[in-house]
Design goal:
Oligomer: single chain
Shape: globular
Largest sheet: 8 strands, mixed
Strand content: 5-15%
Distance between the termini: 36 Å
Structural class: alpha/beta
Strand order of the largest sheet: 1-2-8-7-3-6-4-5
Amino acid sequence: MHKLHYLEGSYRSASPKRSFITRVIPSVLFYFRLYFIVQKASRRALKGDYDGTAWMESSLEVLKSLEAIGVRIDISGIDNIRPENGPVVIVGNHMSMMETLILPVMLQPIRDVTFVVKESLLSYPVFKHVMRSRNPVAVTRTNPRQDFKIVMSEGGERLKNGTSVIVFPQTTRSHSFDPEQMSSIAIKLAKKAKVPIVPLALKTDTWRNGRKFKDFGTLDLEKTAYFSFGKPMLVESKGDTEQAAVNAFIEKKLEEWKEVAN
C-alpha cells in the first residue's frame, strides 16, 4: 500500500514548506526530479521488472515531487472505486500531463489499471518504455472509426482480464471543459463489457501547457490540482443518460473548484 493517507476516500496536501530554491525555480527543480524518476522507471521497464507496484511507486514519487515545490493536490471520492466491485471504466476530462503521471498512485493500490493513450506516447523518448510496460490501449486520434474498434476490442480485453481502463474522450486536451468535445466511446465500452462507469472530474491547470512542448509547461503554484471520482453507474439503454451524468458531474465539480479559488 502506498504512503498517501486517505480519510474516507480523500486526500489533501499539507501546507507547503518551500525552500528558497523552490520559490525561485520551482518548475526547473520539478522537471529535474521528474527526469530521474522516469529514467529509473524506464531502466526497470527495459529489464521487464516494472510491475503495477513499481508504477505506483513512481507515481507517488511524482506526486511528492510536485508537493515538494509547492503544488497542492486535493483528491476525493476514491471510495467510489472499490476492489470488490470488479473492473470499471473511468471517464474524465483531460487537462495536462499531471493526471497521466499521478492517477496510478490513486488507483493502482485498489486494482490494476491502464489508460487509453495516443500512439505517440509509446514513442516518447525514455517514457515510452514505462508506458508500454503498462499494456495501454493505443489509439491514433486521427482515425475515429479505427480507434473505436481498437478501444472496443482491446479495452474489452483489459476489462475481461480484471484491469480497469481510464479514458479521456475529449478530442484534445484542454484547460477548459466543453461537453460537446466528450465522445461516448467510454460509455459504449462500459456497456459492451457490462462494467460500471466512474466519472472523474479533474482540474490540473496548475500544470500549464508548454509553448514548444505541450506536455511540459511551467507550474502555477497559485492553483490547486483537484481530482474527484463520482459514483459508479451501470450503462442502461443507449447510454445517453449516463453520458449526460458524467458531463454534469465534471461541470459541477469544476464550478465548485472555481468558487473555492475565488
